[in-house]
Structures are given as C-alpha cells and as structure tokens.
Write a structure and sequence with these properties.
Elements lengths: L1 E6 L4 H14 L5 E6 L3 H10 L6 E4 L2 E5 L4 H16 L8
Parallel strand pairs: 1-2
Antiparallel strand pairs: 1-3, 3-4
C-alpha cells in the first residue's frame, strides 16, 4: 500500500505521524513517501485532498486524514483495506 505523508517543518504532529508509520511499516507492507507542504506539489495535493493543516495522510492516493494522527484509526483502515483485498480484490477508484 502506498502511503504519502504531507509534512511541514517544526510540526509535532508530523513527527508523531512519521513514528506511527514507521511502527506500522513493520507490520504491514507500506511504501511511505513524504512530501513537504510548502512545495508547490504539496500545496496542490493539500488543496485537492482537503488537507487543512499538516500532517496529511494519503492511502493509495486517497486522502485519509489530516492533523493529529490516530494510530488506532489508521490501523483499522489498513486492516479494512487488507480484508477487502483478501476477499476479492481492491475496489475500483472513481
């Protein structure tokens, strides 16, 4: 699963999000990429995904959350997506 973390300098919640994703990467097959919010590409992604403030987490290109990260919420979503794949393939994107 592709995970994109939209971050900003001096962001405590961004640091927390990185730590959570590091932990979860040991349990799930995650490819984690970070992108700075202050870059034009980061700003465009934030606007398209409705990310009001960092960190923004995108799962397989879809906005998942922004702001204070919740490991529990992220873990539940990863499990849900894995179960969906195991039951017959990922849902198609619209």
């Amino acid at each position: 699963m592709e995970v994109l973390l939209l971050t900003q300098e001096h962001c405590g919640f961004c640091t927390q999000a990185k730590e959570i994703l590091d932990r979860l990467s040991g349990e799930y097959e995650l490819s984690v990429t970070t992108l700075e919010l202050n870059l034009p590409e980061g700003q465009a992604l934030a606007m398209r995904g409705g990310v009001l403030f960092p960190p923004g987490i995108f799962l397989d290109g879809e906005p998942f959350s922004y702001g204070r990260p919740s490991e529990r919420k992220l873990r539940r979503e990863l499990e849900r997506r894995l179960k969906r794949v195991e039951e017959g393939g990922a849902a198609t994107r619209t």
